[in-house]
Amino acid sequence: MDLDVLNLFAIAMGTLAVPILLFMASFMLWPSSLIKVYYWYWRRTLGLQVCYAECGGYRFCYSYRGKPGFRPSILMLHDFSAHKDTWLSMVKYLPKHLHLLCVDMPGHEGTTRTNVEDYSIQGQVKRIRQFVETVHLNRKPFHLVGMSMGGNVAGVYAACYPSDLCSMTLICPAGLRYPCKTKFDDQMHELEISEYTLSIPLIPSTPEEMEDMLKLCSHVRFRVPQQILQGLVDVRIPHNDFYHEVFMEIMGENSKYALHEHLHLITTPLQVIWGKQDQVVDVSGAGVLAEAVPGCRVDLLENCGHSVVMERPKRTAKLVLDFIISHQSAASANSKKKF
């Protein structure tokens, strides 16, 4: 009997040891694969499904949850060199019945990338409109959320296609003329002086550069193990030439201030969320938007940097949801007054 118990214990320990050893091997040898599995598992846990939308030979990759209902659908546009899974930490705190779509921006992750594609802000706006029409999202006005580069695209989208939207949230948007400079602005100045021979801070190619980028983008200091930093770099390196191309496009004269140049055309009810300690695009941009767009709601977050969704996911989700509900209630009340 004692021998049987001993054998059962040995089998149990062996069964447990296999997944543990596999995890350790993945962590040490293939951290990039572990990161991909992590995103896959998180999407599954949150009930998000990955889909593709084809239009004229162009393929959009996006994740979605829920179906169109009483509340407006929400379309989320991520920042430069990111992907649809950027929103997972925030999606966790949004009601599961809401219809959410997180699309990979043009050329990013699973969305088509071509050598002749226009990755300027205006070019990306046209592609996002193509996506919206392909999935029939604009059958009913929807809420648009854009972060950083995605915020620049979202703002110009609102100026060009106002009837598509019922409301909009811009999170630390790029594309403005900011009254104050940031650490990133100083780095860009040095980069221009070097004629772009220095590495671009937002395009890391080593674990050390990845750590520097995380410090630049986040006020909250996350302790990231060296192996995870290596995995994050390994995932990005095959795309760095593409990121460089996009970066040069969005920093070019036709795109750098695209949002600012379209402010006078924005009539969509607007919410702005910004981290007070943003070192990439200065929080003074919130004042620029508030002055230019009547009725603009501004929410500034204490002890928060540029990576608002990663640093304050729960707070950001609540702010966005509250804004959608309050605007919808106000629109409904105004509608009743007319009758």
Automatic annotation (TrEMBL):
<keyword id="KW-0443">Lipid metabolism</keyword>
<dbReference type="InterPro" id="IPR029058">
    <property type="entry name" value="AB_hydrolase_fold"/>
</dbReference>
<dbReference type="GO" id="GO:0031902">
    <property type="term" value="C:late endosome membrane"/>
</dbReference>
<keyword id="KW-0967">Endosome</keyword>
<dbReference type="GO" id="GO:0047372">
    <property type="term" value="F:monoacylglycerol lipase activity"/>
</dbReference>
<dbReference type="InterPro" id="IPR050266">
    <property type="entry name" value="AB_hydrolase_sf"/>
</dbReference>
<dbReference type="GO" id="GO:0046464">
    <property type="term" value="P:acylglycerol catabolic process"/>
</dbReference>
<keyword id="KW-0735">Signal-anchor</keyword>
<keyword id="KW-1133">Transmembrane helix</keyword>
<keyword id="KW-0496">Mitochondrion</keyword>
<dbReference type="GO" id="GO:0005765">
    <property type="term" value="C:lysosomal membrane"/>
</dbReference>
<keyword id="KW-0472">Membrane</keyword>
<dbReference type="Pfam" id="PF12697">
    <property type="entry name" value="Abhydrolase_6"/>
</dbReference>
<dbReference type="GO" id="GO:0031966">
    <property type="term" value="C:mitochondrial membrane"/>
</dbReference>
<comment type="similarity">
    <text>Belongs to the AB hydrolase superfamily.</text>
</comment>
<comment type="function">
    <text>Lipase that preferentially hydrolysis medium-chain saturated monoacylglycerols including 2-arachidonoylglycerol. Through 2-arachidonoylglycerol degradation may regulate endocannabinoid signaling pathways. Also has a lysophosphatidyl lipase activity with a preference for lysophosphatidylglycerol among other lysophospholipids. Also able to degrade bis(monoacylglycero)phosphate (BMP) and constitutes the major enzyme for BMP catabolism.</text>
</comment>
<feature type="transmembrane region" description="Helical">
    <location>
        <begin position="6"/>
        <end position="30"/>
    </location>
</feature>
<keyword id="KW-0812">Transmembrane</keyword>
<dbReference type="InterPro" id="IPR000073">
    <property type="entry name" value="AB_hydrolase_1"/>
</dbReference>
<feature type="domain" description="AB hydrolase-1">
    <location>
        <begin position="74"/>
        <end position="318"/>
    </location>
</feature>
<keyword id="KW-0378">Hydrolase</keyword>
<dbReference type="GO" id="GO:0032281">
    <property type="term" value="C:AMPA glutamate receptor complex"/>
</dbReference>
<keyword id="KW-0458">Lysosome</keyword>
<protein>
    <recommendedName>
        <fullName>acylglycerol lipase</fullName>
        <ecNumber>3.1.1.23</ecNumber>
    </recommendedName>
</protein>
